[in-house]
Design a protein that fits this description.
Helix 2 crosses helix 5. 47% of the residues lie in helices and 12% in strands. It is an alpha+beta fold. It is globular, with a radius of gyration of 25 Å. A hairpin with a 5-residue loop joins strand 2 and strand 3. It has three domains: 63 residues; 112 residues, DNA polymerase, domain 1 (Orthogonal Bundle); 198 residues, hpI Integrase, Chain A.
Length: 388
């Protein structure tokens, strides 16, 4: 038996990508040639090890075809494959939900039989389950059970192609989690943005604030943005990675929050000019600091070239807001400011969704639904003006 490995996606900064492993099992009794295919996420070395593991199992007749895979086997493969792209805390969180709640109930159930009915049965059973203190599981915990199960089954859909659709999609849990809706007090209006950016011009992290309000990128995407992903000529920023965790030992970088988080965002000429200026200032800072400067090729970095701490961003933003005489909002809300300004100006919500990297346009519409009545009133006024 022979096996091949083919790279199916672009490698990220940590040399992690998606590989298709294919092993030929020779001529079958019916005259056809058999083969086993598996999608694997990791480094090339890890993919080689997985191929070797499959060959050993096949030689020992211990290989279980994906079509007969149980949920327990799926969960084991999923949790190992996603380890490279998750912060340690997130990976531990998934394990803490899988091991005590999900696996004891459906570990031996074939993945092919995991439909929405089976999932609702599991959820209802969890609702009647008691904790060690003889209290009901909270709605939040039940919501975490559903979301963990959904993430695992999405892997079965996207990577292993065991299922056509995610059966969790049609299962909703009343009161388990509510999507936070953005209100007008959570964001800056046009005049407040101008005042804030004017007051921030001399700050070290001015470029962070400008990128956030101009692109709608997530905070962890901006802080992980390398200069290689800024295309000055075409006026685009390519989003390919995000900071998952910032520890004393260094940063952990992985994929953006969602698959659609991988995106290319068009930027205006004014932002391109400011980015060029910022790069020149950063080069001057490198010369000034000499060996003390840590070169990480980051667009946003502190005085020593290292990743900026989110707490420092909040501290600076409070100072700027006070100087600009505008209300303080968290730095992350500049992303929402970008979205609401686009929606107010009449930009198609689909375009806003793509810029934000939302996986579904309904997320965009739900998050900003509180702003829709105001936009509806403005639309009515504009339409009246057109008729007159």
């Amino acid at each position: 038996m022979r096996g091949t490995i083919q790279l199916r996606s672009k490698l990220d900064k940590n040399k992690v990508g998606t590989y298709r492993i294919e092993i030929s099992t020779g001529k079958q009794p019916d005259g056809t040639y058999g083969r086993i295919r598996e999608t694997f996420r990791g480094t090339k070395q890890q993919a080689e090890l997985r191929k070797a593991e499959l060959l050993i199992k096949l030689n020992k007749n211990e290989y279980i075809p994906d079509s007969n895979m149980t949920f327990g086997e799926l969960a084991e493969r999923w949790i190992e494959n996603v380890r490279v792209n998750l912060a340690p805390n997130t990976h531990r969180f998934y394990k803490d939900i899988l091991d005590p709640y999900i696996l004891p109930e459906i570990k031996d159930l074939p993945v092919s039989k995991l439909n929405s009915v089976a999932i609702r049965t599991l959820i209802n059973k969890m609702k009647n389950r008691k904790t060690k203190r003889d209290t009901d599981l909270s709605n939040a915990t039940i919501g975490h059970i559903r979301s963990t199960l959904s993430a695992c089954l999405q892997y079965a859909v996207d990577e292993l192609e065991l299922l056509e659709d995610n059966p969790c999609a049609s299962v909703r849990i009343k009161g388990s989690s509510k999507m936070r809706k953005i209100k007008s007090t959570d964001v800056y209006n046009e005049n407040q943005v101008r005042a804030f950016l004017e007051a921030a011009k001399e700050e070290l992290y001015f470029m962070y604030f400008l990128i956030a309000v101009s692109t709608g990128m997530r905070q962890n995407e901006i802080l992980a943005l390398p200069w290689d992903n800024v295309d000055f000529r075409k006026g685009k920023i390519k989003v390919e990675m995000a900071i998952k965790q910032n520890t004393k030992d260094g940063i952990i970088v992985g994929d953006p929050k969602t698959q659609t988080g991988h995106r290319s965002i068009a930027i205006d000429r004014a932002l391109v000019r400011e980015l060029r200026k910022h790069k020149m200032k950063q080069n001057e800072q490198k010369l000034k600091m000499g060996p003390a400067y840590t070169e990480q090729n980051l667009v946003i970095a502190n005085e020593l070239g290292k990743v900026v701490n989110s707490g420092q961003l909040r501290k600076v933003m409070k100072r700027i807001a006070e100087k600009a005489k505008v209300p303080y909002i968290p730095p992350k809300n500049l992303r929402h400011t970008h979205a609401t300004l686009l929606l107010y100006s009449g930009v198609n919500p689909k375009v806003v969704q793509e810029r934000l990297g939302h996986s579904d346009i309904m997320i965009t519409l739900n998050v900003y639904s509180a702003m829709l009545p105001i936009m509806q009133a403005e639309a009515a006024e504009k339409f009246g003006e057109l008729l007159q």
